Amino acid sequence: ALLRSQLSGDQVIVVSNREPYIHQRVDGRIEVQRPASGLVTAIEPVMRACSGTWVAHGSGSADRETVDRDDHVRLPPDDPAYHLRRIWLNPAEEQGYYYGFANEGLWPLCHVAHVRPVFREADWQHYREVNRRFADAVVQEARSDDPIVLVQDYHFALVPAMLRERLPRATILTFWHIPWPNPESFGICPWRREILQGMLGSTILGFHTRFHCKNFIETVDRYLEARIEHEHSTIAYGGAETLIESYPISIAWPEGESGSHWPPVDECRRRVFQHLGLPEGHKLAVGVDRFDYTKGILERMHAVERLLEKHPQWLGRFTFVQVAAPTRGQLDEYREFQERIHRVAQRINERFGATGRPVVRLLASHHGPEQVNELYRAANICMVTSLHDGMNLVCKEFVAARDDEQGVLVLSRFAGAAREMPEALIVNPYHVEETADALQRALEMPAAEQRERMASLRTTVREFNVYRWAGRMLTDAARWRLRRRIEERV
Ligand code: G6P
């Protein structure tokens, strides 16, 4: 309701690559899947609240069957609240724009997880064309000359300036969901100026943390002739001004939502333990990620191995379950990484095989929100050990799932979330020994200490939820719109 009143009838258009519901044809039936994407997790509840239009890439095998003549579909399927306008990319566009420039170029460039970015001229051309197509779609969807457009993520660095040109009065809020590196790291991108110029078409440019804002401002300072006002955190370039601000993203707090009537924790634990064949009293740690090299899954397994070396009393009494959602599997870097993780899991299980029960369970398939939630509620420990992460929402989901105020979060200091969640056991995932020690500490943590930490984490995530994230951006936008109206009057 608050979001609606902030918008006071203004039209909101979201642009993202990933769509919120993917329709697949399975055995003749259409199945709806929620993609594993922090971006979708965060934006979807906001769209429900403000009933806007969402422009995204249609990627499911049955997506085309669900749209009307204008390529629109009303979502969510069971309780329509907003429109989705799908953009259909041909295989060459998808290859060049999505797999190529976005995920082999910008993704490793911004994460600096020691995977070398690849920049191909042809990918860049596709990236520009696809950005143009999405900008065209926004212009078509706009019902007035000054809509509020929320541009999401590294897939669309050029869209803000393209929109600014065609809808000069639009309020363009761009949110970069991944980290922004320092100027030296970013500087290896052959099209660094074009990317920065594109982003500076935004009215407001948001990152998760002050640190990423600072990196961005320094990058602009290094490569463009722009006027930077450090006091107000604004950049003036090409006759327009952009506010650079941090907005830590979050999740919708489950209370009061239909999905929050979860089975009791004991029941979740019973079901999960039965499914995995674990005896009562066994300790369970979980990791839930896209199967991505930035998530620190390898380092996590090494820490589990080290724990069992140092503390063999856990042998046969401890299991680590890793849910790894398939992702970007067409890229060699991802395939090789995923194969490597399978090999390491197997090696660890063979090494400790005498206990008869595998130590590592690698569940490399798509899991729906209910299944993931059941795991969160069954676990003693949740491991989030990203090598670098804009925010990371898994840690927030875990905390939201634990209304029993039990369970320990082991969290990487290189995830944006570490700044808001100091009550977790904070680790450097590159430091295997430290992570193994944190696991040991978590396994031995008394219930009272778990409760104290978890209760405090829950207060933070409940209060700084995703509506607060969107609300702060929209409040800043409303202030900017008001200022412009006043200026136009004089
Ligand atoms: C990250 C990105 C999102 C993306 C998600 C899933 O969270 O910031 O933009 O949607 O990963 O990746 P995918 O490539 O499957 O959309």
Can you tag this structure with a few keywords?
transmembrane; Alpha,alpha-trehalose-phosphate synthase; membrane; alpha,alpha-trehalose-phosphate synthase (UDP-forming) activity; alpha/beta; 16 helices; transmembrane helix; 43% helix; ten-stranded mixed beta sheet
Description:
The chain is α/β, with parallel strands linked by helices and 490 residues long. The chain contains 16 helices and 18 strands. α9 (265-276) packs across α12 (369-378) and α10 packs across α14. The protein binds 6-O-phosphono-alpha-D-glucopyranose. The site of 6-O-phosphono-alpha-D-glucopyranose (G6P) has 11 residues, from α2. This is Alpha,alpha-trehalose-phosphate synthase. GO terms for molecular function: alpha,alpha-trehalose-phosphate synthase (UDP-forming) activity. Keywords: Membrane, Transmembrane, Transmembrane helix.
What oligomeric state do the depicted chains represent?
single chain
SSE-based structural type:
alpha/beta
The overall pLDDT average reads: 96
Question: What is the number of helical segments per DSSP (H or I, 4+ residues)?
Answer: 16
Q: Return Rg in Å.
A: 23 Å
- Major β-sheet profile: 10 strands, mixed
The kinds of small molecule bound in this structure are: 6-O-phosphono-alpha-D-glucopyranose
